[in-house]
Amino acid sequence: MSNHGQAVPLRVDIVSDVVCPWCIIGYKQLEKALEMLSQPFDVDLHWHPFELNPRMPQEGQGLREHLAQKYGTSPGQSGAARSRLTELGQSLGFTFDYFDGMRMVNTFRAHQLLHWASEQGRQTALKLALFEAFFSRREDVSDTKVLATVAGRAGLPEVEAMEILSDGRYTEVVRTEQQYWLDQEVHAVPTFMFNGGYPVPGAQEAEIFVRVLSKVHTNDPA
Fold first, then answer.
1. CB within 8 A of 188, min separation 6: which ones?
2. Which residue from 29, 66, 109, 160 has the least number of CB within 10 angstroms?
3. The pLDDT of residue 159 is above 60
4. Mean pLDDT for the chain?
5. DSSP symbols for the chain
6. 52, pLDDT greater than 90
7. CA–CA dist 5, 44 (Å, integer)
8. pLDDT tops 70 at residue 220
9. 39 within 8 A of 111, measured Cβ to Cβ
10. Residue 123: what are its φ and ψ, rounded to 5°?
C-alpha cells in the first residue's frame, strides 16, 4: 500500500485480529480506496493487537460450534455468511477457503510475532501472510511451527521467530497494548484511525474510506 509523487503523509492505525474475516476485508477496501483517490498518500501503516477470543484454548474450537455458541448463529446463517465473505473477498482479490473442519484458534502468539515484525519493518507483510495462512491455506495460526513458517514467507528469519515464541519476550508488551485499545473504547474490529483522528469502526466500503481520506487530506474534522 504505497503511493508516489506529491504524496501526503498518512498514518493509519488498524486494530484487528488475524482470524477476523472483516479485518482483511476492511484492509482490502482501504487499499481500493487509496487507489481510487487522485491524491496520492504516503501511508505509514501500524497494526495493533486485538483478540476476538482471548480465552480460546490452544486446541481451538470448531468454527461452526464457536459461532453458534458465541453469536447464536445457525448452520444456515453460517453457510450464508461464508458464501458472502467468499464472494466479497474474491471481488477484492482475497481468497477465503472455508471448509467443514475449520477451527477458531488462539491468536496471542501471532500478535507477539506481529509486534516483533513491526520492529523489523515487516509487520504488514506478516499480517497479510497470517490472513492468507488462516483463511486461504487452511493453516493453524496458533501453532508455533506454522507461525515460524509464515514469518519466513513474510521475509523474517524463522529461527528467530521460533525463539520469540519460545521465550515469550513480547508477552507483556502485547498485553499492555491490548489493554490500551480497550481503554480507548475499541471493543470491535477492525477499527481504523487516520492521522490519530477519531476511530472508524468496521469494514467500510471503499467509497466510505474515500470520503474519510478526502476529509483527512483537507483537515476537515466533519
1. 201, 202
2. 160
3. yes
4. 95
5. ----SSPEEEEEEEEE-TT-HHHHHHHHHHHHHHHH-SS-EEEEEEEEE--S-TT--TT-EEHHHHHHHHH---HHHHHHHHHHHHHHHHHHT------TT-EE---HHHHHHHHHHHHTT-HHHHHHHHHIIIIIS---TTSHHHHHHHHHHTT--HHHHHHHHHHTTTHHHHHHHHHHHHHTT--SS-EEEETT-S-EES---HHHHHHHHHHHHTT---
6. yes
7. 16
8. no
9. no
10. -65, -50
CA 177/CA 162 separation, integer angstroms: 22
Our measurement of the distance from residue 27's CA atom to the centroid of its chain's CA atoms, rounded to an integer in Å, reads: 7
Q: Phi then psi for 8, rounded to 5 degrees?
A: -95, 130
Given a cut of 50, is residue 217 above it in pLDDT? yes
The count of other CB atoms within 10 Å of the CB of residue 201 is 15
pTM: 0.94
- In angstroms, the Cα distances linking 8 to 117, 168, 197, 221 are 25, 38, 16, 17
Closest CA to 98 of 71, 70, 134: 134
What was the pLDDT predicted at 221? 52
Q: Which domains does the chain have, with CATH numbers?
A: 8-217 (3.40.30.10)
Query: How sure is the predictor about 3, in pLDDT bands with cuts at 50, 70 and 90?
Result: very low
